[in-house]
Amino acid sequence: GTLPGWDRVEQLVREAYERYRGHDDGVVADYIPVLAEADPAWFGLCVAESGGQVHGAGDEDVEFSVQSISKAFVYALVCEAFGHQDVLDRVGVNGTGLPFNSVMAIELHQGHPMNPMVNAGALATTAMVPGATPAEQWEHVRTGLSRFAGRQLELDGVVYRSESETNTRNKAIARLLQSYGRIEADPLQVVDVYTRQCALRVTARDLAVMGATLADGGVNPITGERVVSAHVCRDTLAVLAATGMYERSGEWLFEIGLPAKSGVAGGIVAVAPGKGAIGTFSPPLDPAGNSVRGQRATAYLSRTLGLNVFASS
Ligand code: GLN
Questions:
Q1: What is the CATH number of the domain that holds 33?
Q2: 98, 236, 266, 271: least surrounded by Cβ within 10 Å?
Q3: Lowest-confidence range among 3-7, 257-261, 283-287?
Q4: Degrees, nearest 5: CA angle 270-274-277
């Protein structure tokens, strides 16, 4: 592979774990009530190479809800179904510079959702998922994300219900998009499918394999299954580079140099095209909603494994 040898990657993953496990900056999300019950000490990381080798450390097998990381993979499924131009026109690819659940960003752009990694754009994307009914759309999402992970992913019913009872803002965003003619389906049903996709249970290892599938041009390196086309991976990674880490996307790209996506339960996936991916999990977040230990561990691994996409050597 293009990464250092097996022993060296194993060693660096263990080092990243030891180096940052004691760091306790950041705050566990509580706007979805059940997320506040997460243990702030949880810390897992995993590197999946495009050849299929997997290296983990710490709580790599602890399950948590995928949350906004689902946006990247649902986007890929929708790009696969609709193609480059349609999705570009309807969802966009430019950053908002505002928090992920900003209503102001929608108003500032005459109802345009701007990009698929903020909630407005993610809702517009989920509205496009193939299926005659919301139940079929949900099945398409769950099956698609499971193919990225190479195993059957399940809904966390507790997280789903907790978010469903409190997601008034997402319902407002969906209504607002409807008012601008950006969502044709029933907005509350779109929010329901979106809330389910966010409540899928994954591990840091799953995130690494899902990311490595994008790194590998759409073929899952463990199962060998083609999930999406290479074009779709390229488009998805471009969007992640521009917008995957919310309003911190520029700083992230400057410091770490990898397309990535975070979620408020504490997951991050970072993708090194052609090489593999890093999945991390640790619940305490920075103010933008990105896991603090996850960012540090990913930065360390990007540097020591030589993954920065802008580096010439
Ligand atoms: N389900 C969460 C929400 O819509 C996801 C947000 C996130 O992970 N940033 O608020």
A1: 3.40.710.10
A2: 98
A3: 3-7
A4: 25
Catalytic, 27? Answer no
Task: Specify the pTM.
Answer: 0.97
Rounded to an integer, the average pLDDT of 85-97 is 94
When divided into structural domains, the chain yields a total of: 2
Q: Ligand 1: which atom is nearest the Cα of residue 163?
A: 1
CA 222 – ligand 1 centroid, Å: 28
Q: Which domain holds residue 250?
A: 6-65+202-222+237-304
Task: Determine the residue of 27, 31, 32 to mutate for testing ligand 1's pocket, defined as the one with the most ligand atoms within 8 A of the Cβ atom.
Answer: 32
**Residue 75 and residue 181 in one domain:** yes
